[in-house]
Design a protein that fits this description.
The complex is a heterodimer of chains A (165) and B (493).
Chain A (H helix, E strand, L loop, with lengths): L6 E6 L9 H15 L5 E6 L15 E8 L7 E5 L15 H12 L4 E8 L11 H19 L2 H5 L4 E2 L1
Parallel strand pairs in A: 1-2, 1-3, 3-5
Antiparallel strand pairs in A: 4-5, 4-6
Helix pairs in contact in A: 1-3
Chain B lengths: L2 E5 L8 E8 L5 E9 L3 H5 L8 H4 L8 H15 L10 H33 L10 H6 L6 H20 L8 E2 L2 E2 L5 H9 L6 H21 L1 H6 L6 E6 L11 E5 L5 E6 L8 E4 L8 E4 L3 H4 L2 E2 L2 H7 L6 H13 L10 H21 L18 E8 L2 E9 L5 E7 L1 H4 L1 H16 L7 H12 L18 E6 L4 E6 L4 E4 L1
Helix pairs in contact in B: 4-6, 4-13, 8-13, 11-13, 12-13, 15-16
The chains are: A alpha/beta (165), B alpha+beta (493).
């Protein structure tokens, strides 16, 4: 059955490990926002990590944005980068990349959606459920930016360059 | 001139592992070691928390096998609330947990075989890395359906987990003394007779086909499979009290490389009487051993290979038939072939599929008697067979219901010494006489480690870390070569 939800926002990470839960926290924020301003074409999802079966969730989507925490030194607050399919599996089952999910989608359904990865800078990864203050600030900035992208998806569908903030 | 090669899978945040291989003056391997940083902070973290939180809290340990930790902690808490030591739950409680667990075993094993192992086997471990992946497998006309099957088998197992654990993250299905939900008839019908291919019968069929694929491969590449990192060892797992394979509950059994029982079906509540852990200066991960045999000789394997060596039979017809053929290969003796782990894993996958179907057809899953409680106890141990092997959870609780002590021995810790042996065998076979790292060399080490499917403590998955790196040093610890997981050299002498 053809899905009516054309945009998927998928946050992943371990919310029990402080800033590793930034992706999940983004989905919580978006969920609250969409409760107030419903957008039937937008689907939200969240998990500990990406899994290969997530390739089936990409079917029929026009735009997909994965959201993850980042330790990337070059990211100050957040970054939005286009994702290209990659066939390279990781060393163990303990990590699956957005590019690999995209490649599986292409393999299974002969097409894949326009896909971006939002990485939000995190700072601490201890066994606590609360984000650090800096991560909360980064999350809020990324949230405002992502809302704009969801309301104006053509910006991402037309552009192919990295957005760094 | 002696040299040191280091293979370093850098985990996301917490866990960390590397392989160091020492070469002597003639470039012969003189020593190899696998170092994995074990995550131990959790045991302190749960101290002071109410015991009933443990089954949810422990899921923070790992994003890939939270169900194993969830259920092992719940089993320990069953003891704390006086619900018996593993066999005191209501039929609905135990069967719902079994369904959750066998769903996890099914999806984990399927993912491992189809997406990590099949490229190595079907395309060759020395194949071009650009095509040695599941996409490369799928692009081969003989194996086109494999990638899709792997995805859908994984998806089916995840659906079972979702309907039994309640949700994807921090599931709450298992609680001290039982479960918090049964399986509705709608959920049962969806999982049992769902739209093709997501139904129980198709999962059994695909599991059989995967086994046939492996056996066909083995028939054509027997020398390679049998000779890749063979070594004898002890084997340990839970078995059902009658000796049957059981992933959820049983008694502890260990056999030696010849099949002699060295741990004779003991109650795991007393595991500390039989198992100890050794600390070695060069690794953060402990080395468990059977106390009766001592540190030198008491180490053991856990996981699929070990389970099929300790069990007397498999209590499902199709898997039992495969088990008999598998056992015949070693004349009924324990199987010590490293790559036969994949064979054993696929037999377990078939068994899990059969059990899932049987459970889904059991009307006990729709009953409402979910929780049992009895006399409150101060201490509890929960064991089960996780996909990678035996998982130990041990807790002490004070009169204020706070956890005062936690001890976990995870599957990868149990396999610490076997993984070291596997790497050493591969190092000697592939790296003797070499003074630089090649792609097949790097992948051979990965294949050896991957047979054990170790958990590298990657409970977090933030972006920005490299998963694998090999470094080559001379006898002055000078870096002379380095290779990363994308097979690019970053430095050469």
């Amino acid at each position: 059955m053809e899905t009516t939800k054309k945009i998927l926002i998928y946050g992943y990470g371990n919310p029990g490990r402080q800033d590793d839960g930034l992706g999940n926290a983004m989905i919580q924020l978006l969920d609250g926002w969409l409760f107030e301003f419903p957008m039937p074409h937008v689907q939200l999802d969240s998990n500990y990590q990406l899994n290969i079966e997530d390739a089936t969730e990409l079917k029929g989507k026009v735009l997909v944005i994965f959201v993850d925490a980042s330790v990337n030194e070059n990211v100050k607050q957040f970054e939005l980068i286009p994702v290209q399919p990659t066939a390279k599996a990781e060393f163990t089952m303990h990590a699956t990349s957005p590019g690999y999910i995209l490649h599986l989608c292409e393999q299974m359904f002969n097409s894949h959606p326009e896909t971006w990865l939002m990485q939000i800078k995190g700072l601490s990864w201890e066994m606590k459920e609360e984000l650090t203050e800096q991560a909360k600030d980064n999350l809020q900035e990324a949230f405002e930016y992502l809302k704009d992208m969801i309301m104006h998806p053509c910006k991402l569908l037309q552009e192919k360059h990295t957005h760094t903030y | 001139m002696s040299q040191k090669i280091t293979i370093s899978p850098v985990t996301r945040v917490e866990g960390h592992g590397k392989v160091s291989i020492h070469l002597d003056d003639n470039n012969q391997v003189s020593q190899s070691r696998l170092h994995i940083v074990e995550f131990r902070g959790f045991e302190r973290f749960v101290q002071g928390r109410p015991y009933w939180e443990a089954p949810v809290l422990v899921q923070r340990l790992c994003g890939i096998c939270p169900v194993s930790h969830h259920l092992a902690a719940a089993k320990a808490m069953d003891v704390i609330v006086g619900a018996g030591t593993g066999d005191g739950l209501t039929p609905t409680g135990e069967k719902m947990r079994r369904l959750m667990h066998y769903g996890q075993m099914f999806q984990s094993h399927a993912l491992h075989f189809f997406h990590l192992v099949s490229p190595d086997l079907l395309l060759g471990i020395d194949a071009d890395p650009a095509i040695r992946n599941v996409i490369g497998v799928a692009q081969n006309e003989n194996f086109q359906a494999l990638a899709v099957q792997g995805v859908m088998m994984r998806k089916y197992g995840q659906e079972i987990i979702k309907h039994t654990a309640g949700k994807k993250i921090h599931g709450t299905g298992a609680i001290p003394g039982g479960i918090n939900k049964n399986l509705s008839t709608e959920e049962r019908d969806l999982l049992l007779n769902g739209e093709d291919p997501l139904n129980a019968a198709k999962m059994i069929k695909w599991a059989e086909e995967a086994l046939a694929l492996f056996k066909d491969y083995y028939h054509k590449h027997r020398d390679f499979v049998d000779n890749f990192s063979y070594f004898p060892s002890n084997h340990l797992s839970l078995v059902r009290k009658d000796g049957a394979l059981d992933f959820y509950h049983g008694v502890l059994r260990a056999v030696d490389a010849e099949g002699n029982k060295i741990l004779k079906d003991v109650d795991y509540q007393h595991y500390l009487n039989y198992i100890a852990e050794e600390v070695r200066s060069w690794s953060y991960m402990k080395f468990p051993f059977l106390t009766e045999l001592g540190k030198e000789n008491g180490w053991y394997r856990v996981g699929p290979l070990a389970r099929l060596n300790t069990a007397d039979f498999i209590p499902s017809p199709k898997a039992q038939q495969e088990f008999e053929a598998y056992k015949a290969h070693t004349n009924g003796k324990p199987n010590n072939y490293c790559l036969h782990t994949h064979w054993a894993r696929l037999i377990e996958t078939l068994h899990a599929a059969e059990v899932i179907k049987d459970l889904l057809e059991d009307p006990d899953l729709q009953k409402d008697d979910l929780v049992v409680k009895g006399k409150r106890m101060p201490e509890g141990v929960g064991l089960l067979e996780a996909p990678r092997g035996t998982l130990f959870h041990h807790y002490e609780v004070n009169k204020d219901d706070q956890i005062t002590m936690a001890n976990l021995i995870v599957s990868t810790t149990n396999n610490n010494q076997p993984m070291n042996n596997a790497v050493e065998n591969v190092a000697k076979a592939w790296m003797n006489g070499q003074n630089e790292i090649t792609e097949p060399m790097m992948n051979a080490v990965e294949v050896a480690i991957r047979a054990y499917d170790p958990c590298l403590s990657c409970a977090t998955h933030a972006l920005g870390k490299m998963p694998l790196e090999i470094s080559l040093y001379n006898n002055h610890n000078e870096l002379i070569d380095q290779m990363q997981s994308d097979y690019t050299h970053t430095k050469s002498s």
